[in-house]
Design brief:
With about 325 residues, the chain is of the alpha/beta class. It has helices at about 20-35, 35-45, 50-60, 80-105, 120-125, 145-150, 215-230, 240-250, 295-305, 320-325, and strands spanning about 65-70, 75, 105-115, 135-140, 155-160, 170-185, 195, 205, 230-235, 255-260, 270-275, 280-290, 315. Helix 1 (about 20-35) crosses helix 2 (about 35-45), helix 1 (about 20-35) crosses helix 3 and helix 2 (about 35-45) packs across helix 3.
């Protein structure tokens, strides 16, 4: 009686499916429809030799012969005929996917944080320079949400103050510096001044209920307050811009805002530029390195061309922002 404990049992051979080259499948469909390799080459915009190479590769990947050449052109073999339906389905699905992506890319999705802020004016100015461009404006939580949205492709660009180190796949371009203004009631002692020196604000409390803890703008105003001895009061509730301006106009509080912020009109609220030095809020354009939106590069060039660098002789920036917004002399 033989002992089969150590008998060798051959393992079944597992045949891995071929990874089809979509360009080769597209060439196969073109030859089928045009019957001649030369005609298919003209349809695809490539050489006849390239068509032949693609068909040869496809036949090699599939392990079958797809065409036989006759005087009347390329005729499908039985295997070629069996493959044709699936090949057309593959090309059709690919075309639908490309069409879907192109449709999604018709609009440039830009995060401006808030539609009352200066970033929206930048996008509007750029839009006037580009014909037939659709723009979708997104508002968000600033840099905290923009990082993930850029990485996932749900937005194409974002305007924000860059606080800290960015991920390697994100690119930041300085966009603009916006001068800070003081907001006071019309009967406030400073209301009649055309501008106010930063030193005169020492000891003052500025009310900014929209300064969300952990946001890049809250950090900016905290650094500003520390530099000029100004207390930043973030107590709420935050009922929006209209309520903010109304409270300032009532004379109970003073506030701070950017020069280009489109604040709601209020008859008793006065906006005064801060100077000597002028505190500047830094805003950058952010994008993902792998984003290939056809308009994104043009937006980046527009922002770079309109940028005015930091002037340390008359402006103030927090130390972390100075290097990015300072343009050294040529």
């Amino acid at each position: 009686m033989s002992n089969n404990r150590h008998a060798h049992h051959p393992q079944p051979v597992v045949v891995q499916p071929a990874d089809l080259d979509l360009a080769a499948v597209r060439a196969f469909v073109a030859v089928t429809e045009d019957r001649y390799f030369s005609e298919a080459a003209a349809t695809l915009g490539i050489t006849q030799q390239a068509v032949s190479k693609r068909i040869a590769k496809l036949e090699s990947d599939l392990g079958v012969r797809l065409f036989s050449r006759t005087r009347t052109g390329a005729e499908l073999t039985r295997d070629g005929g069996a493959f044709l339906h699936h090949a057309r389905a593959l090309v059709g699905i690919a075309d639908q996917a490309l069409e879907m992506l192109h449709a999604r890319r018709r609009s440039l999705r830009v995060d401006v944080l808030d539609t009352r802020l200066a970033a929206l004016d930048v996008v509007r100015a750029f839009h006037r320079t580009v014909e037939d461009m659709e723009v979708e404006i997104i508002t968000s939580d600033g840099l905290r949400s923009a990082r993930g949205a850029l990485a996932h492709g749900s937005i194409d660009a974002a305007f924000a103050r860059v606080s800290g180190t960015l991920e390697d796949d994100l690119v930041s371009v300085p966009a603009y510096l916006e001068q800070a203004h003081l907001l006071v009631a019309r009967d406030h002692p400073l209301a009649g001044l055309p501008q106010v020196e930063a030193a005169r604000l020492s000891g003052m409390t500025a009310w900014m209920p929209g300064n969300v803890a952990g946001s890049e703008w809250a950090e900016f105003w905290d650094l500003f307050g520390a530099a000029f001895d100004i207390r930043i009061d973030v107590t709420g509730p935050n009922f929006g811009w209209e309520h903010f301006v109304e409270e300032i106009g009532s004379g109970e509080r003073v506030g701070l805002a950017g020069e280009w912020c489109r604040l709601p009109s209020h008859p008793r609220t006065v906006q005064i530029p801060i100077v000597d030095p002028a505190p500047m809020y830094p805003c950058s354009l952010l994008r993902h390195r792998q984003n290939r939106h056809p308009v994104l590069a043009a937006l980046t060039r527009f922002v770079e061309g309109d940028f005015r660098p930091y002037d340390p002789r008359r402006q103030w920036l927090p130390a972390p922002d100075r290097a990015a917004f300072h343009r050294p002399p040529p």
